[in-house]
Amino acid sequence: MPGVGLLFGPMLIGVYLNTILYGVLVVQTFIYYQTYKNDKPWIRYLILYLFILETLNTGFDIGMMYEPLIVRYATPRATIVAPIMLSADPIATVMISTPVQLFIAWRINIITKSKLTAGIVSFFSICAFIGGIATTISVTLIPEYARLHEFDGAVITWLASSAAADIVITSSLVISLYRRKSGVRATDDVINRIIRLSVQTGMITAISAAADVIIFLVVPNTTLYANVVFYQTTRD
């Protein structure tokens, strides 16, 4: 097993980043409800659902660090058995990311009139959801750090599918927006800003998911991937 630094250090830093971004999320949620009061009720409920899930996920992450560093402090079990809350992370992540990706798939269908693209995004999103559930079940049944790579397939399905969905989302939005350029400078400037925003949000999330699965496979028996997955959850 790796030292305590490589085992808990990345997880702790990941939780710090997640908590900081959660503060940003609180402000964004407040601004949304103050600004977009005329949105459809189901959209406002979706935002509330995501806020509640992200709040719970942040609590799970804090509990995940409290257990080994406080409750199990200086005991062999702390470095052998994963904390109980670690199993909650995959399912919490996909319960946040999947509705978001399906919502964007619906928007893509409206904007681009492409049912194929929306269907591809939905397919990868559902695959990621299944992979996340499978990962949670696997971690629950096999909580030892040394055996986490026994269910690489579930983790790869979860993260690779999520990355694929984000890549398709970003690519389709960028292509659709680019085609809408009219040659009018004022209009094109607005479209360019939207394109940059789409790349900054969607592609960062996709890169995070891809980096997560690569680190998980290349650097075994550590939690270096935790920095990426916690960041990815809040970005979603």
Automatic annotation (TrEMBL):
Q: Which residues cross the membrane?
A: 12-33, 45-66, 78-104, 116-143, 155-178, 199-219
- Does the UniProt entry include the keyword DNA-binding? no
> Which organism encodes this protein?
Pleurotus ostreatus
Q: Which residues form the DUF6534 domain?
A: 162-229
Protein known as: DUF6534 domain-containing protein
Recorded superkingdom: Eukaryota
Tell me which UniProt keywords the record has, alphabetically: Membrane, Transmembrane, Transmembrane helix
Transmembrane as a keyword of this entry, yes or no, is: yes
